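Lecture 7 notes: from sequence to structure.

We start with a single chain of 353 residues. Read the sequence below before looking at the structure.
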Amino acid sequence: MKPVIDALAVHGWTADVDSRIRKLAPHEMAARVVRVDRGACDIATISGITRCKLGPRDSLVPGDWVIVEVDPSAQFVLTERVERTTEIQRVDATGTGNQTLAVNVDVMFALHGVDRPHRVGRLERLSILAWEAGVEPVVVITKIDLADQGESVISVDDAKAEVASMLADVPIHAVSSVTGQGLDELAQYLQPGSSVALAGESGCGKSTLVNALVGDSVAPTGRTRIGDNKGRHTTTWRELIPLGNGAVVVDMPGIRTIGVTSESAGTDRAYEDIAELALSCRFRDCGHSNEPGCAVQAARADGTLSDARWTSYTKLNREHAAESERAVERRQRDEARELLRKKRAEEPEAPRR
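Now the structure, written as tokens:
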């Protein structure tokens, strides 16, 4: 490992990152993106946190590793972005493309508080997004101190059981950022060099958890709304926060909608039980509706496969199919624009009068 880079270890520098950084010129240095604003970003370098100018086409998110240089005005300028190892994406709110949520992370904590209606479907979708990116999902049930005070919507045991029924292979932890209960269970994911993304709806306790892990008030927190315990967007930007031991967390604003992308690997992983049942169907192209010898419908009939799980599975598959069609349409439009651009570039200029 390059000794000059050791000061970046607090922001997640590892031997693997070192191996992916090309040889630097004397005027260049490696850095990690901490926060992105319009036209500029905060980066962590061997000298500390500094500001870096961005061009109109530069697309970065907190967690990116980059190479920067100093321009004649003594400002840092982006030279290149290092290839990402992981990239968690969702379909954006408009449905016209994908939005990158987190990059270069190993684990994603999917948070949900016991002070609000339990929406296992949200945790399932977050887990699917993580799996599609090659990231390990971990469900973190927060605010369990409220259960002891009788202020929770659901008991901790019932919350765990509901999650386990839908996400059997996903680790589940219950914590209180107020009392510290359960936080020690998260230490296994926060070892030196690890990067963890925090995802969940507003008010689920992401920023409070960050403060508890850091041991200081580094992320703003806010009150939840009376009536439904929904939170306001206390965190309005994504930010990479070092924990002090070489691990980092990426705190993100609350996520309202969790649209799945055209990739289906995450859904396949989430519903391995249904895929296994399908192997026993009489017909290889079984549609799992009214076909004779359908093992999936037989499992629904005897209760082995719940209606709720089947409904969730079919809904996600419809979303995947719709997004795949939209992705094809976007690609065709982009190709048509590129052909038109090339055609115009090849046309001879009209003679001037």
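Residues 307-346 form the longest helix (40 residues). Keep this in mind for problem set 3.
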